[in-house]
Write a structure and sequence with these properties.
The complex is a heterotrimer of chains A (about 220), B (about 240) and C (about 475). With about 220 residues, chain A is an alpha/beta fold. Helix content of chain A is about 30%, strand content about 20%. Chain B is α/β, with parallel strands linked by helices. Chain B has 13 helices and 8 strands. Chain B has a 4-stranded parallel β-sheet, with helices on both faces. A 4-stranded parallel β-sheet of chain B has the order 6-5-7-8, sandwiched between helices. In chain B, strand 7, helix 12 (about 210-220) and strand 8 (about 225-230) form a beta-alpha-beta unit. In chain B, helix 5 (about 75-90) runs antiparallel to helix 6 and helix 7 crosses helix 9 (about 145-155). Chain C contains 24 helices and 10 strands. Chain C has 3 domains: about 45-295, Rossmann fold; about 315-390, no CATH class; about 410-465, no CATH class. In chain C, a hairpin with a 4-residue loop joins strand 5 (about 205-210) and strand 6. In chain C, helix 16 (about 340-350) packs antiparallel against helix 17 and helix 17 (about 350-360) packs across helix 19. The longest helix of chain C is centred in the first third of the chain and has 24 residues, at about 20-40. In chain C, strands 1-10-7-4-2-3 form a 6-stranded parallel β-sheet, sandwiched between helices. Chain C has a 4-stranded mixed β-sheet with strand order 8-5-6-9, sandwiched between helices. Chain C is elongated and about 95 Å long. Classes of the chains: A alpha/beta (about 220), B alpha/beta (about 240), C alpha/beta (about 475). Chains A and C meet through helix 1, helix 5, helix 6, strand 9 and strand 10 of A and helix 2, helix 3, helix 4, strand 1 and helix 5 of C.
């Protein structure tokens, strides 16, 4: 393997930085206001759990993410069965997670469990991927996944319908809260983290929105009380 | 107040009406107007073309002309920005930097001066017409002027002001840009003229006569009868 | 004039007369403006958000060595191989050698402007690999053998009819006339490519020093798939992409979405910090991050314009630039279009050859106003002009501006300009637009104003004569 230019580049950088740059973004009376976190300037998020659920639902509706409320584990099973019927699923993929395992089994469909290792071509043929998540984000209407919480890196993006089963207690306010959750629940930030905000989409053709460009065309969140 | 007039070179040569309007208005408001005759050009054409030494040489004439002025008021957003925003840059690290900063400090664009310094709104003007306002880019983005001309024009009796969709979009003049890249400049001007036409206005008003030169130049070539006037000319009808 | 400049004038001339193109782009961007303003209005304070975002990038860029070293350490701790490339050739050669050593035949690529910059696709094809662009817009322009039109929306200039014709011709697909049908055609083609590819290539929007992750923003999911399914992954990252802390993303990701695409948040924002880790059942077995200089350090050394390295490649400046909208992305003739391209290209590719991009602007400032990280774009265009002229004045302009200065320093002479203008004006009017009209650059398309009966100076003198 060729040796790289690390030392050369670092030398160039240090020489360049010997001259100080004007902080022109702070000109004309601008200064990051003391006592404020940068995220204070984002769209505001309600502090109450109900308020956050409402915001998450509103954002999900805008994104065309389906949200279904489930009072308990039995409700999860019946919602999942309903989804399977509505979408004519023939086979699904999932992983071992507390909110979903029994409901997934009770569907009576062939299941690929990605946390046991799998063939890509087999996963590609599944009609749906059913996973947990690390948390839900109210501000964006999005879902944060890690490999451990969502059955690996591909389960939440390869099958054409992604179903997330999450509990209301997993809902956080904004991305800063999501990162805080990652820090609290892990010794080190995992090697794979992804924020999923709605079904896959593109505007590349005449700036007209089309869902299901490469990732899932449908995204459904089953929100457990 | 003793108000010293800054009359940019092309206003002097092509659009003296804007300057004359400013004189009438300031005198009506009871101020004494002065006009140092040694002023010629702010130097912006050389500055924008990258010839900063030549621009500085010209700018020194302005530093001298306005040295004793209390307050300097000009009828152009773009030349106003040259004095207020770019002179400190042009003279940074040079012997006359302090003079440049002093001039920048005491220079005001005309509509900003009326509204923000003198606190006037209604000048008692009347000008029946359906008009739309074009925001010259330097005035808008270098000097932050948007509210002020509209504040003044809303009191003009008989004037119906409608906003065009592309009010804040560049007309394509850009000084030497208009002749160095005439094809791009013209396309931008066409977009601006189309937006004006959409409003149904018979008159386009701006704080920048250089923009109006571009817009009117295109309308004239198209054979369109829409007129253009500087804000000061409209306001001076009392 | 450089050859690049001549080509630019030719292309700009053609595009500015293309009313179909003008209408298409206006339509494409119309919806963006409305949604973007709605989205910005939701922020507690968009202007303060810009200052905070700019402060994060300022910190990163002005301590670039420290953060790049930290980034590298953290990435390597998880088994990532980090390669520092001084220029495009070094980067392309390294990536080609990684591919060769692994016997790679099929490569799936997600969108990377940095990859465009170093012509990575071509280098890998020369090395015998099939390279497929997975991003829909990039896929379309790849099939058409065109460069991307816009750094965020590569196929913005094409109609569905043109895209369908390309698909029919190059893919043998059945005729399709809706964006939905066309997207599904690409989706079906791509699904096989993801599964079969030996190597994935991505870029990155950010690289977090604190935690050792690259961050990739996309809507389609093609980057998620390209960076997950192939056994080998290489990510090409410009050194200026580094940001100090993970929490900086909490602000930068939403702002990138808002400014770039008028969205609340882009569909997929993915942090990648290493290859498949113990306990993971999928993901690439091997992960390389190539850090690219390619004259970014030259821009860094220009302290006045260093903030151009703050760019998060959102494309907001392109979307508001009246020059971009009228000449189109291809006229720039280089990877980075629009205002940011006009600022950085002279630094990255040569001042004298590319200064025309900095001159071809009316300096309206819409770009600086739109930039979410407050880069002083339009003032940098002025600075590039000054630097270009200081280095090499244009031979016929220098005497003109010297004459201009000489004349304008002589108010006594200047006052004769007005009478001369009054004499000359009717003559100019008579020959307007003709080949021998000295003002034909103006009068080719516009009338000149009539010379007024008196100049302001003459009016003032008369006033005082009266008094």
């Amino acid at each position: 393997m060729p040796s790289d230019s690390r030392d050369k580049i670092l030398r160039r950088i240090r020489e360049a930085l010997a001259v100080k740059a004007p902080a022109c973004h702070l000109a004309h009376g601008g200064s990051p206001a003391a006592g404020h976190a940068p995220t204070d300037w984002l769209p505001p998020v309600p502090t109450s759990p109900d308020g956050r659920v409402a915001l998450f639902e509103k954002n999900s509706a805008d994104l065309k993410t389906g949200v279904r409320h489930c009072a308990d584990a039995a409700a999860v099973a019946s919602e999942l069965a309903a989804l399977a019927r509505e979408n004519a699923w023939k086979s699904v993929a999932s992983h071992n997670f507390s909110l979903g395992s029994s409901a997934v089994q009770s569907m009576g469909l062939p299941v690929i469990f990605t946390d046991r290792g799998y063939e890509t071509s087999a996963l590609e043929r599944c009609d749906a991927g059913i996973s947990g998540c690390a948390c839900l984000v109210a501000q964006t209407g999005g879902i944060m996944v890690t490999a451990a919480s969502a059955g690996g890196r591909a389960l939440s993006v390869l099958p054409p319908h992604h179903v997330v089963i999450a509990s209301r207690s997993q809902l956080v306010g904004n991305l800063a809260d999501a990162f805080a959750h990652l820090r609290e629940s892990h010794k080190e930030i995992p090697a794979f983290v992804s924020f999923i905000t709605g079904p896959s989409r593109t505007g590349d053709i005449e700036r007209i929105l089309v869902l299901g460009a490469h990732g899932p065309k449908k995204l459904t969140v089953l929100l457990v009380a | 107040m003793k108000v010293t007039l800054f009359i940019p070179c092309f206003i002097d040569q092509y659009y003296p009406g804007a300057g004359i309007g400013m004189v009438k208005i300031l005198e009506k408001l009871g101020h004494e107007v002065q006009y140092p005759e040694t002023q010629t050009c702010c130097g912006q054409p050389a500055f924008n073309s990258g010839y900063w030494d030549e621009a500085r040489a010209v700018a020194e004439t302005m530093l001298d002309a306005f040295r004793d002025a209390e307050v300097v008021v000009g009828v152009s957003g773009s030349c106003g920005a040259m004095l207020k925003v770019f002179y400190p840059e042009l003279f940074r690290g040079r012997t006359r930097e302090a003079d440049a900063r002093a001039l920048a400090e005491k220079t005001h664009e005309f509509s900003s001066f009326l509204v923000n310094v003198l606190g006037v709104g209604d000048l008692g003007a009347s000008f029946p017409a359906k008009a739309t306002f074009h925001d010259g880019c330097h005035g808008l983005r270098e000097l932050g002027i948007r509210r002020e001309p509209r504040e003044l024009l809303k009191h003009v009796r008989g004037l119906e002001l409608v906003e065009m969709a592309e009010a804040a979009t560049c007309c394509g003049f850009g000084g030497t840009f208009s002749v160095k890249f005439p094809e791009i400049s013209t396309a931008m001007g066409e977009v601006k003229c189309a937006s004006i036409l959409e409003t149904g206005a018979e008159l386009v008003i701006s704080n920048d006569s250089s923009c109006l030169m571009q817009i009117q130049g295109l309308f004239d070539r198209q054979g369109n009868k829409i007129r253009s006037m500087h804000t000061a000319e409209v306001l001076a009808n009392f | 004039m450089s050859t690049e400049s001549l080509q630019f004038h030719r292309d700009a001339d053609r595009l500015t007369h293309d009313l179909r193109h003008r209408g298409l782009i206006q339509k494409a961007l119309g919806g963006y403006y409305t949604k973007r303003d709605e989205q910005k209005a939701k922020y507690t304070d968009w202007q303060m958000a810009r200052i905070s975002a700019a402060a994060a990038k300022f910190e990163a860029v002005n301590h670039l060595d420290k953060y790049l070293v930290e980034l590298t350490e953290k990435l390597e701790a998880r088994g990532t191989k980090v390669f520092w490339a001084a220029d495009g050739n070094e980067a392309a050669d390294y990536i080609a050698s990684v591919a060769r050593n692994a016997g790679v035949k099929r490569i799936i690529k997600s969108k990377t402007m940095t990859g465009e910059e170093i012509h990575l696709g071509q280098a890998l094809e020369k090395a015998g690999c099939e390279v497929v662009e997975s991003d829909l817009g990039e896929f379309i322009v790849q099939l058409r053998e065109e460069p991307p039109y816009h750094i965020v929306f590569p196929s913005m200039h094409l109609t569905r009819g043109e895209i369908n014709a390309t698909f029919e011709k190059k893919l043998g697909s059945a005729p399709a006339d809706t964006p939905e049908e066309l997207t599904m055609i690409a989706r079906n083609v791509m699904r096989q490519k993801y599964c079969e590819a030996d190597m994935g290539i991505s870029g990155a929007n950010f690289a977090v020093a604190e935690t050792g992750h690259i961050s990739i923003t996309e809507n389609e999911g093609n980057a998620r798939l390209s960076t997950t399914l192939p056994k080998l992954l290489v990510s090409l990252v410009g050194i200026e992409k580094v940001i100090p802390k993970l929490d900086d993303l909490a602000l930068l990701l939403p702002m990138l979405a808002t400014a770039g695409a008028a969205q609340n948040m882009t569909c997929y924002n993915t942090l990648l910090g290493g290859p498949r880790q113990p306990g993971e059942t999928d993901g690439p077995q091997e992960f390389h991050v190539v850090l690219l200089d390619n004259r970014r350090t030259a821009l860094l050394a220009d302290a006045e314009q260093r903030d151009a390295l703050h760019c998060i490649r959102c494309g907001a400046c392109l979307n508001v630039c009246p020059i971009f909208k009228n000449i189109g992305g291809h006229s720039y003739g280089t990877t980075y279009q629009g205002p940011i391209g006009s600022v950085i290209t002279p630094h990255l590719r040569g001042l004298q050859s590319w200064k025309h991009l900095s001159f071809s602007s009316s300096l309206c400032g819409a770009c600086s106003e739109a930039c979410p990280v407050k880069i002083d774009l339009h003032h940098h265009l002025l600075q590039n002009r000054r630097n270009a002229i200081a280095q090499k004045p244009v031979w016929w302009e220098k005497p003109i501006f010297a004459g201009f200065a000489w004349f304008m320093r002589r108010p006594a002479l200047y006052r004769f300009a007005a009478p001369l203008l009054r004499i000359g004006a009717p003559v100019l009017h008579a020959i307007r637009g003709k080949i021998f009209d000295p003002a034909r650059m103006w009068t080719g398309t516009r009338d000149l104003p009539p010379a007024p009966p008196q100049s302001f100076k003459e009016y003032w003198r008369k006033r005082h004569a009266k008094r």
